[in-house]
Amino acid sequence: MVASSTPLNRHSHQLLQQNFSVTFQYQVHFTEQLFDSNNPLLANVVAADSETLPHKMMVIADEGVLANHPHLSSQIENYCHHYGDVLKLTTAVIAVPGGEAIKNNSNWVEAWQQKMDESSLCRHSFVIAIGGGAVLDAVGYAAATAHRGIRLIRVPTTVLAQNDAGVGVKNGINAFAKKNFLGTFSPPYAVLNDSAFLHTLDDRNWRGGIAEAIKVSLIKDVAFFEQLETLAGAIALREMSAMQMAIYRSAELHLQHIARNGDPFEMGSSRPLDFGHWAAHRLEHLTHYRLNHGEAVAIGIALDSTYSYLMGLLPERELQRIYDTLQTLKFTLYVPELSHYLDDPQHPNSLFIGLKEFQEHLGGQLTVMLLAGIGRGVEVHQVNLERYREAVGILKNQSFTL
Ligand code: NAD
Q1: How far apart are the C-alpha atoms of 160 and 131, rounded to whole Å?
Q2: What is the pLDDT confidence band of residue 2, given thresholds at 50, 70 and 90?
Q3: Among 54, 56, 161, 340, which residue has the least CB neighbours within 10 Å?
Q4: Vertex 317, ends 315 and 320: CA angle to 5°?
Q5: Helix (H, G, I), strand (E, B), or coil: what is residue 38?
Q6: 400: CA distance to ligand 1 center in Å?
Q7: For the segment 191-231, what is each residue's pLDDT rounded down to a tens digit?
Q8: Average pLDDT over residues 9-34
Q9: Residue 261: its pLDDT value, please?
């Protein structure tokens, strides 16, 4: 290295090469009745880091969950009292609106951070986020940016959050009319999935979450897709054991992908897990969130599978199986917003703006995941808009028997 006192000549430069790696690990637990005092899981997870017990803890919970589980707040308070040597609740459980609205208003993040400050939370304290993917995303963002990262334990309460949104490394809120424009990559301290919460989901959120399991099976694991084909009827009838199997495998595949795919913090231009998502994110926006995330993902899967078929990648028989599985689960595969301004791809309300936004969000070249067969994702960097128009036409006409 050049000594700092050495004067630099014109056009010369000095270099310091920085290089280090950080290992992340966290556990995803599957349990029932998490806040029952007889269930020591949460206390054990927190106590595993035995320094300076008890740890301060703030709990932020989805109002949709609290309304359906009216004893939850008092149960949490009793739990913290019972395990008082490990956990110290700094303030009463904070109730927050559930659903996408929480991600559309950054004031919430600031309000929680103010509470974290008033409660003197430190980087060794815990924020427990209880709720659907939207609440987990927003609270996760607040926790990740307070003190540059307060420990976050996620308690996902929807199917989608338990099998996907709650188990990964991302958080975020929406801004400037774009999904997840503000956010960080920030692994949680732990994830605690309690299937008892799922009983109170309405049918749309019960079904919606399974779209992410279908997505991950289609791009990665034909055996899992076959399992979902078999389980679809039982899941539609709300059989919990069928749903638990689907959630467990989907969460496992999502975790494996993050750990093994070589790009956990999405530095490259590709995002394989976002199969069907360029259209899904766009449709959520175009329908003003009339569609929930999972419902939009189901349509995105149907669209990109149909396009894969039209491009000669996906055999017709396999496309039909995908339609059949989505329809057994009672997903709608077409909404009018799909067809708006298809002939004017630059129009602000065109579906095709979603491709541009997808590319912008990831940076680099456009990368869209398609299917070369069930269980075999394949990335492309160019798309044929005419074939996409055709794919929308097929979904619109509900010509599912090709
Ligand atoms: P959601 O969070 O919007 O919740 C849907 C509704 O269910 C809300 O009204 C909520 O109050 C209610 N609810 C939650 N749990 C309940 C329960 N147990 N009983 C009754 N009602 C309950 O929906 P979601 O599908 O869980 O999450 C969608 C969000 O997740 C989107 O914002 C999406 O962008 C995000 N997401 C994030 C990631 C990620 O990696 N961070 C991945 C996928 C999706």
Answers
A1: 11
A2: very low
A3: 340
A4: 115
A5: coil
A6: 29
A7: 999 999 999 999 999 999 999 999 999 999 999 999 999 99
A8: 93
A9: 86
Helix (H) or strand (E) holding 154: strand 151-156
Ligand 1 atom having least distance to the Cα of 103: 32
Report the alpha-carbon distance of residue 201 to residue 74 in Å, rounded.
21
Q: State the Cα–Cα distance between residues 260 and 250, nearest whole angstrom.
A: 15
34-40's contacts with Cβ under 8 Å and 24+ in sequence apart are 34/155, 34/192, 34/194, 34/196, 35/72, 35/75, 35/76, 35/79, 36/75, 36/79, 37/78, 37/79, 37/82, 37/83, 40/83
b/e map 47-77, b = 16+ CB within 10 Å: beeeeeebbbbbbbbbebbbeebeebbebbe
> 27: how many CB neighbours lie within 10 A of its CB?
11
Angle at 47 between CA 62 and CA 73, to 5 degrees: 25
Residue ID of nearest Cα to ligand 1 atom 38: 165
Q: Which atom of ligand 1 is nearest to the CA of 63?
A: 11
Query: Is 303:354 a contact under the CB 8 Å cutoff?
Result: no
E strand map for 226-376:
368-371
Atom 25 of ligand 1, nearest CA residue: 160
- The helix (run of H) or strand (run of E) holding residue 60 is strand 55-62
Instruction: Render pLDDT for 244-258 as a digit per residue (tens, 0 to 9).
Output: 999 999 999 999 999
Query: Could you tell me if residue 186 is left (phi over 0), alpha (psi between -120 and 50 degrees) or otherwise beta?
Result: beta
- Give the closest residue (by CA) to ligand 1 atom 3: 99
| Cα–Cα distance for residue pair 93/28, rounded to 1 Å | 23
Of all protein residues, the one whose alpha carbon is nearest to atom 32 of ligand 1 is 134
Please state, in angstroms and as integers, the Cα–Cα distance from residue 54 to each residue in 43, 57, 81, 282, following that order: 10, 9, 11, 45
Taking residue 262's Cβ as centre, other Cβ atoms within 10 Å add up to 7
Give ligand 1 pocket residues (Cβ under 6 A). Answer: 62, 64-65, 68, 98-100, 103, 131-135, 137, 157-158, 160-161, 164-165, 168, 170-171, 197, 200-201, 205, 208-209, 292-294
